[in-house]
Design brief:
The chain is α/β, with parallel strands linked by helices. The chain contains 4 helices and 14 strands. The protein starts with a strand and ends with a strand. The chain binds flavin-adenine dinucleotide (FAD).
């Protein structure tokens, strides 16, 4: 049996920064959606562009995956059945980003999942986190889940200054904003290379474009000692020529 798929409708749309749209969806089918999955992902199921009724088709059928993309649970309120998703927009054209850019209250969105929470160990001795704007919702959620005594460094790449968000984080989680429109920035690698090489007690989160993730993993494998069970490294998107 595949993942449960639920139909939802857009409740509100807001621009939280030049490159981030916050969309809250709701609907009765969210009544048994798990409430402890902040920072985990769902598969959002989009309607085919240019179809008149703008309804996503739920279910498993030939080619169904082309209408799905991964998005992060920024918040879920089980009382009001409101699920908050943040979409990176205004920097590429794609099924999901175009849908989000044009979404209005009442539009339909399918939701499959959720998956598992992303950070390998919220209670690790220290943390290292790297993510571009697509991982900002996950990093923001993880920081909110960490215990107060968590310590470590976070690097978040955003296209411009106004995309920087006020994050709620433990005092000793130091957040470094990298402001550059270059999503394939080598800054994450320089930051990782500046760390100590004994990372055995460090939980590491990496989420960015596939080649960036690959570079960071290669660096870890070549130069660092780390615990594989404390590493989450995931390609959040793939640059296609
Ligand atoms: C576990 C997980 C959680 C994720 N959570 C979020 C989230 O909360 N918010 C979010 O915004 N994204 C998130 N992403 C990333 C998102 O799924 C991808 O960016 C997705 O490809 C966007 O789909 P699209 O239909 O807009 O573009 P696609 O149709 O997939 O791609 C169209 C073109 O745009 C390029 N492209 C795709 N994404 C980007 C990008 N971000 N920047 C520049 N070029 C791009 C592709 O290379 C391709 O050339 C997550 C990914 C994963 C794996």
């Amino acid at each position: 049996m595949g993942p449960k798929m639920r139909m939802t409708q857009v409740l509100s749309v807001s621009d939280i920064s030049p490159h981030m749209k916050r969309i809250i969806v709701t609907g009765n089918e969210l009544k048994d959606f798990p409430s402890d999955k902040k920072s985990a992902h769902v598969k959002a199921i989009f309607p085919k562009p240019n179809v008149a009724n703008k309804m996503p088709k739920l279910g498993i059928y030939f080619g169904f995956k082309q209408w799905m993309r991964s998005y992060t649970i920024r918040e879920f309120n089980p009382q009001s059945m409101q699920l908050t998703l943040d979409f990176a927009v205004n920097d590429h054209q794609g099924l999901a980003s175009n849908w989000a850019s044009n979404a209005v209250p009442g539009d339909h969105l399918g939701i499959a999942g959720p998956g598992d929470s992303k950070h390998p160990d919220l209670y690790a001795e220290s943390h290292l986190m790297f993510g571009d704007i697509t991982a900002l919702p996950a990093i923001a959620g993880i920081l909110e889940l960490m215990p107060d005594n968590a310590k470590g460094d976070v690097w978040i790449q955003v296209p411009e200054e106004q995309d920087i968000q006020d994050l709620v984080a433990p005092a000793n989680m130091l957040i470094n904003w990298l402001v550059t429109p270059d999503k394939l920035t080598g800054d994450f690698l320089s930051a990782l290379a500046s760390q100590k090489t004994d990372l055995n007690n460090t939980a590491i989160f990496i989420a960015a474009e596939a080649s960036v993730v690959k570079q960071l993993k290669a660096h870890l494998n070549e130069h660092c000692q780390y615990d594989k069970t404390k590493l989450y490294a995931s390609a959040y998107w793939n640059r296609k020529k």
